[in-house]
């Protein structure tokens, strides 16, 4: 049976990379790509780069609407034909307002779940969550854990948590694989990424003070979980088809993460050619980033700092066991940071990659 993939989140970077990887193993697969009307023009450009319109159909709709905003005839067609669902569409902005985050991340997932429940030939439902559904938990977090009374650092975390709860409620009846990535970096070989967020904010921050003695920010003992996009894509495509992947949750995080001080120094050396030499209290930087003018000048979201004092330690036992059988492993950060920084330096003025800081 020719596989038919239904995917939300196109033309996003991860979705596009997933499609390209899936085609390696299944060149004749068909893709039904749900696209919000606001993304139509960009989606057309990305589809043209992928191949024929017959193989890659753009389906205009809205995950927040009943039946995903699709015409009745199209919805019925998909019910009979779709074999795999990849749900990636979400609002990822750490500073997102609560109403928008809930509408897209929670209501949207509820509507996708209803669609999944109506499919007659479903082989796998792959849901993209985040490791940070752990919220403010401290210590080791297992892949088998979710509801632990945690609080959350922002609306992104809380709504992704609510959404994963909804997906897990289907696991007894639907073959589901839940992916919980850490902070996603660019490609480990080329450095390619779509947006300069997360650790790239550090690069933007450091460049503002390149001519001065660079400080460390706080003690930096907390672990930082960075993973390259190619590891996420390779692992997801394998787990989406492996029998072992059904009914499981996977932390696609670094099994041997560096702490914040090590990551900061590694970036500093690669970007500026020198290490930090003194320490600035983290509270001072947080207070400075609370000032709009300073935040916009350094081009750093204040919410980013929370991920460099993270107290959670993500257990990857299931991921390492099931991916190890296929020879898939997360590369060491030191082996690819140079590529990440080089790509940033080459594209740092590209407006499409810059995150607007409010």
TrEMBL record:
It comes from Tumebacillus permanentifrigoris. It comes from the Bacteria. This is Thioester reductase-like protein. CDD domains: MupV_like_SDR_e. One of its GO terms (molecular function) is alcohol-forming very long-chain fatty acyl-CoA reductase activity. One of its GO terms (biological process) is long-chain fatty-acyl-CoA metabolic process. Pfam families: NAD_binding_4. Residues 8-235 form the Thioester reductase (TE) domain. SUPFAM superfamilies: NAD(P)-binding Rossmann-fold domains.
């Amino acid at each position: 049976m020719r596989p038919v993939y239904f995917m939300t989140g196109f033309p996003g970077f991860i979705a596009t990379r997933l499609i390209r990887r899936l085609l390696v193993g299944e060149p004749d697969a068909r893709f039904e790509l749900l696209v919000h009307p606001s993304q139509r023009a960009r989606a057309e450009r990305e589809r043209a780069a992928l191949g024929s319109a017959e193989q890659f159909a753009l389906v205009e709709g809205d995950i927040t609407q009943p039946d995903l905003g699709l015409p009745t005839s199209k919805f019925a067609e998909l019910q009979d034909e779709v074999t795999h669902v990849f749900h990636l569409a979400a609002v990822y902005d750490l500073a997102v307002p609560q109403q928008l985050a809930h509408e897209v991340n929670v209501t949207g997932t509820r509507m996708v779940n209803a669609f999944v429940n109506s499919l007659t030939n479903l082989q796998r439902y792959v849901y993209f969550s985040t490791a940070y559904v752990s919220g403010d938990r401290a210590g080791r977090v297992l892949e088998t854990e979710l509801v632990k009374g945690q609080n959350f650092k922002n609306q992104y975390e809380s709504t992704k948590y609510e959404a994963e709860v909804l997906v897990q409620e289907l696991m007894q009846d639907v073959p589901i694989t839940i992916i919980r990535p850490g902070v996603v970096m660019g490609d480990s070989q080329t450095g390619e990424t779509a947006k300069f967020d997360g650790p790239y904010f550090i690069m933007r921050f450091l460049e503002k003070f390149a001519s001065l003695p660079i400080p460390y920010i706080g003690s930096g003992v907390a672990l930082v979980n960075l993973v390259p996009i190619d590891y996420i894509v390779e692992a997801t495509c394998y787990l989406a088809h492996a029998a072992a992947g059904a009914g499981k949750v996977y932390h696609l995080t670094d099994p041997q993460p560096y702490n914040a001080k090590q990551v900061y120094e590694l970036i500093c050396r690669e970007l500026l050619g020198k290490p930090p030499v003194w320490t600035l209290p983290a509270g001072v930087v947080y207070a400075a980033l609370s000032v709009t003018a300073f935040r916009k000048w350094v081009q750093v979201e204040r919410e980013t700092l929370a991920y460099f004092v993270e107290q959670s330690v993500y257990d990857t036992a299931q991921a390492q066991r099931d991916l190890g059988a296929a020879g898939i492993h997360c590369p060491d950060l030191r082996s690819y940071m140079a590529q990440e920084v080089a790509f940033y330096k080459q594209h740092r003025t590209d407006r499409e990659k810059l995150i607007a800081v409010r």
